[in-house]
Specification:
Order of helices and strands of chain A: HHHHHHHHH
Low-confidence stretches of chain A: 192-196
CATH class of the largest domain in chain A: Mainly Alpha
Mean pLDDT of chain A: 92
Largest interface: A-B, 29 and 30 residues
Strand content of chain A: under 5%
Structural class of chain A: mainly alpha
Oligomer: homodimer
Number of helices of chain A: 9
Number of strands of chain A: 0
Chain lengths: ~200, ~200
DNA sequence: ACGGAAGCGGAATTACGCTTCCGTTTGGCG
DNA sequence: CGCCAAACGGAAGCGTAATTCCGCTTCCGT
């Protein structure tokens, strides 16, 4: 009654996918500066078609980012399955960064700043945070990371590394080095002794 | 002979300063999105005047950022004067961040990404790095920070904190917390014992 | 004072992307 | 098959912000 759920013509569905693929590539490479016309071209479609599927650039970008966030939540759940708390934390962080690597638009979305409506995206971000929060807290409780680390800190520190990715494109040597140092600063040796 | 060095009329000099002041404020608040028209208006001048002093937006932005970098180099030299190596390092880092706080355009320039010509700016950045490099190396030699820390790491980590400033505007609580954690991860207790 | 070069103001011009419109084509149900 | 709503293509329309142009005004040396 409220949802008219019209099945969508076969070619339309195919084209929608082509658009997502093209947009994924271009937004990844050029961030939100990617141009609608280029996206349509790369998808092998006309502007009209592009706009039939997404009312405007914002909607397309949101759809892309939303998809990425969704994938991220899955990855977080996978990390949660790791038995060792310290290990799980590390996997979460590495996973988070690896997922962002090479995708400028996603990096920007993770770091914030765009903050337009994003309603849908925000919801998916929250979904991720819920899982991530549990992992962080478990790690803290296990004493393998500094006792005062919060889920919010996780995001802040990870986004710092993402900033390195974003602003120092090219080889991933820079951000991996950054990650290494941050990790060294966060972890505690199995024994137990805060640096202070 | 090569430099015609015409003294510049009094009102022109005054106006140039007004432009710099206006641009400083607006670029600080809105980054490179600040509009030329608004800058001219805030300076109480017409567009023509603005463009007489700077051939284009890029040039104006470059001039602003160059000025900031210059100030930064001075601050680095001041930090170098601090006797204790560990202390000097910390002062350098805090100074770097404090200087960036609240200036979006400068933050972006520090983090990179704009990388257009910037020739002049690059030169000033190098000037800063020379001093900063000495401070970092002295701190490492004194054993107060992790032994493998390089000047490049300093910039990467500091820019990570700047990213927090940039992407989480508003209160400076976020970036100070970020700084705290990074500092804890970098410093070594007076005794001496690397964390892995 | 005066002349004219230097400087000023701001409307008009450009450039560039997003978005809209509408005539044409196509999938798929009866 | 034949119909027609759904889908497509892409040129034209718009909005925005940088940049140019040029007639008018103001310093400043003589």
């Amino acid at each position: 009654m409220t949802e008219t759920e019209r099945p969508m013509r076969a070619d339309a569905r195919r084209n929608r996918e082509r658009i997502m693929a093209a947009a994924g590539e271009l937004f990844a490479r050029q961030g939100r500066d990617a141009q609608m016309e280029e996206i349509a071209a790369r998808a092998g479609l006309g502007m009209g078609t592009l706009y039939r599927h997404f009312p405007n650039k914002e909607a397309l970008l949101t759809a892309m980012v939303g998809e990425r966030f969704h994938g991220m939540a899955d990855l977080a759940r996978a990390a949660e399955a790791v038995a060792d708390p310290g290990e799980a934390f590390e996997v979460l962080l590495r996973t988070y960064l690896e997922a962002a690597d090479g995708d400028a638009a996603f990096q920007l979305a993770l770091m914030g700043k765009d903050g337009l409506e994003w309603e849908r995206v925000q919801r998916q971000k929250a979904e991720f945070m819920e899982v991530a929060g549990r992992i962080v807290e478990r790690a803290v409780a296990s004493g393998r990371v500094r006792a005062d680390l919060t889920p919010a800190d996780f995001v802040v520190l990870a986004n710092g590394v993402i900033a390195t990715m974003y602003f120092q494109p090219g080889g991933n040597a820079d951000w991996r080095r950054h990650l290494q140092i941050v990790l060294d600063g966060i972890r505690l040796p199995p024994s137990g002794d805060a640096a202070r």
